[in-house]
Amino acid sequence: MGAILSELKTRVSVKTDTSQIDKTINSIDNDVFAPAISILKNIKSKIENDVPNALSNRVAERIRSYQEQFIWMNGTVDTTQMVNTIFVEPSAQGEVDVGATALSEDGFPYPIVIELGSVKYEGKPFAEPSLNYIQKDIQKIGWEVVRSKLG
What is this structure's pTM? Predict the structure, then answer.
């Protein structure tokens, strides 16, 4: 039998599309509007370099917060072990992982069994509902991050 997957993880990945900025830059007369081109290139650079990490971090932190809330609301907390193992960890440019890694002393994978259930235990999801809740927050978080990085 293979190893039991001990963590329940979600990857938040932010990719930017600056093609419209490129089109605008390419359509402007370089000689007359050089200052505008410089401003647009600066904006493009910030969007490509600063926004993905900041946005993925903010979304992952909000997901972590929702997961904690659902764990407490579901009554699946005997100790704070599971809540204390929820992590937010960058994995690549614009990518952050969020999840829980709680194990019992016997190696029982709490997060997966609590989320999905087992033969003996009806699951009490916390990860899936947190992803449903974050959907309503993403646009607001996105605009806040873009404004903070461009402001």
Answer: 0.85
Q: Which two tokens stand for residue 80?
A: 């704070």
Report how far residue 130's alpha carbon sits from residue 64's, in angstroms, rounded to the nearest whole number: 8
Taking the domains of the chain in order of start, what are their residue ranges? Answer: 8-15+51-150
Q: Tell me: the pLDDT tens digits for 84-115? A: 889 999 999 999 999 988 887 777 778 888 89
95 within 8 A of 13, measured Cβ to Cβ: yes
Look at residue 138 and give its three-state secondary structure: helix
Query: HSE of 115 in the Cβ direction (CA atoms, 13 Å)?
Result: 22
Distance, CA of 29 to CA of 20 (rounded, Å): 16
